[in-house]
Design goal:
By secondary structure, the chain is of the alpha+beta class. The protein is 18% helix and 29% strand. The chain has 13 helices and 40 strands. It has a nine-stranded antiparallel β-sheet, with helices on one face. Strands 11-8-7-14-21-20-17 form a seven-stranded antiparallel β-sheet. A hairpin with a 2-residue loop joins strand 38 and strand 39. The termini are far apart.
Amino acid sequence: MKSSMIPCIPLFMCLLLMATSAVGAPADGGALEATDHPDRIELRTSALEATIRKKGYVTGVAGGSFVDRKTGFRDAGFGLDIVDWIMEPGSDEAYRAQLPGDLAYEFNNLHHGKRAKRSIEGPQICTQAKELSPQLIRGKDFLGVQTRYRYTLAAPGKKPGSEWEQTLVFPEGKRYFLSSDRIAAVNASKAMFLRLDMPGHIKHNRGDTFSEVYLSYAGRIPSSEFFADFAPDAKFNYRRDRDPVPQRFIRAYHLRDPKTGKDGPWLAGMTLDPSVVYEAWCHQRGYVCMIEEFGGRPVRPGESFSAAFLVGYFDSIDEMHRVYDQYAGHSGLQADERGWKLTKGPAPLARKTAEEPAKEPAKEPAKERLAQRLEWFQDQKFGFMVHWGPYSQWGAIESWPLVEVDKWARPDDLKAWTERNRDMERFKRDYWALNRTFNPTRFDPQKWAAAAKYAGMKYFVFTTKHHDGFSMWDTRQTDYRITHPDTPFSANARADVVRTVFDTFRKAGFGIGAYFSKADWRHPDYWSPDAPAPTRNPNYDTLQQPHKWSRFVRFAHNQIEELLSGYGPIDILWLDAGQVRPPQQDLRMDDLVRMARGHQKDLIVVDRTVGGEHENYRTPEQEVPEKPLPYVWETCMTMGKQWSYKPDDEYKSTNELIHLLVDVVAKGGNFLLNVGPQPDGELPPPAVTRLQEIGDWMKINSEAIYKTRPMAPYKEGRVAFTRRGETIYATYLLDEGQTTLPARITLAAVRAEGGARVRLLGSRRRLAAQAGEQGLVIEVPPSLAQAAPGRHAVVFRIDPERG
């Protein structure tokens, strides 16, 4: 603590300070008062009083200064929203002796518990910065304070210089203030977080200053639980990687008058977006220590992360909930003299001085970027889709047999259904247990990628998780995954199937698409186990039980974030289960997409069948539109009858598949062709054969497919048109087994008044062509007419004649 002795100041200076620093808010601010002293800022509204220190123990609101004018109670700790270090998981034991200042972090003790953590940058701002320069903001109906600090210490291999910014806003008439803390990072970390006190610690002697604690994730806790010291992870601990994310994140203590023993109001600290909290604890170490850490996700140099809070006095827990819900979902806060607003992401960095206007951050042209990505997508034209999971062992339709009302998914030729005497409960029980026998030892992604590449496919979409909830990657969110010991394949070096296929296909030059089902029938907060689940939808009222639905939303967000932050560059997030949409099944798509593009800025998002800004392209299923569509689209279709593997499935012929590809591309779409691998991991031989034969055709004719755009009238009899620049491609579709061409072909859609150069792809010979009233007439010589260069379809390339 620094001495409180006041330095000697000449009388005229004192008068000057009084005249300039104690000026209140504008006249229409009513009861707002603010006094800017050399060592502190004092704030007063009609509801609150608070002090922000400039020297000594700094950051947040000074301990004991936060007064509820309604009741006269004040906070019982060392301060509110008090800030420490930038940290990450892991131990610093290997280099602890080299750490400067206060960066060393020891664990396995009562103060810090057993979880290994280490400092990235310091010092602990509250105790070691010693002096800050908070800037007072005088608004029309609020007072605010903004403070910044640049960290000066760093761990080995890191550098100092990350910037912390805190914004506090005290609205007139409210018994609470809003705040945000933001880090603009100069270092990289897989799980960077900021540690702070929220709302703040509680000084007490056997509960004399408070009667109970309320934690939204643990309930009400009597003060007697804090009479003896215990470690942070012993009890009342929250961890995002272990616990369901609560609907609200509130930590509060019920104040008590130590002289009379009479209860006063609650003092609560609320984190307005629960998903940002990495870990939080409420333990006893001579006082009740309320530490919170937010962030805990990958951060790169130049990126920012933040959290927004509400701290104040309340007469009941119900009142806390009502106020929380007014502000829920925000993680940033902006303020200047014109006003303040909460944001759903890190707010722009504040101005540096009271005179310098805040600069708007450079805005990324998101729409232009997305438009460029969709152009890239339309250039690819031909994609490979794979539905694969434990269901392949039964040859069953993926997931859908679990839905009682969807009887179509349990046909009589499904042995797994008839062998169980059509007993739904028995069928579901055994379906859920398929993971225990799934052991695809012949799985070789190199073979998959080689077959798809030869076929001319350019991008790959894989079912990371279908509706049944089985995750084909090493997710940390559920045990129902391929890498869990319950699954025999978990011991295989390729057990993390998603990582293996994405890495393999990416290396082979494919774009990568992650299919993800927004529904999860295995998750207890989608299909609750305490009631029947006859339909594809949740079996409870999500609006009446928002806490359950909130947990599911966070689960889904966490899984998607794992895929987008830990599995390399991903081009497409292909979201299925279109019934998951507001109002009953609100997955908070705005937040999800913001998070997703925070990890993958070039991501194309396909919230299929929902419409709106997050369905970046449409996906007609198992059909080709009759006419071109006025938006970006992709036909997704099975090679056989079923998306997943089915023994003796009926596969489309190569001729039909090539005609489908040509038809789709001529109408401006992409063709995503699906194959279901066998339970052993091999692609079915009929599928491999067709991919080979498609590849043979593409080797000759692919230039009529890739990077082309449609040309009206798109189709003319047996001919489909595409174009690239001035070049027109006319693809003549041959019947199954047909090898001959007409001697003369007329293309009414092609007007070549200036003449045209025509040849068949696969032949260097120029063909005679004449433009006339009926269009372009192409003469096919007998040698080509009787032996067309290729099967299934031939392509005439038509270029304008050069003078």
